[in-house]
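The instructor's notes for this session suggest beginning with a concrete chain rather than abstract definitions. Hand out the sequence below and ask the class to guess, before any prediction is shown, which regions might be ordered.
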Amino acid sequence: MAHYAPTMTSHGLPAEVFEYLADLSSTAEWDPGASEARRLDADPLRAGARFRVLADFLGRRIPLEYRTVRDLVRRSA
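After discussion, reveal the predicted structure:
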């Protein structure tokens, strides 16, 4: 299984930024290697949520399907 650990700077609140990034339908907005991303179901963002991302790699568009495996846990400050 691939693991991806990028670093980025944000001026948003950590909980809001995490929630935005955890919803992989936004991937094409912040990942230059993704040309399209969408949610495959309409359920709330929780374990089992599914996403399809089209990744651009070596001149090809590669479909990737992701599934959230854990519920998001909000931590208080």
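Then share the key points. DSSP finds two helices and three strands in the chain. The CA atoms of residues 12 and 18 lie 10 Å apart.
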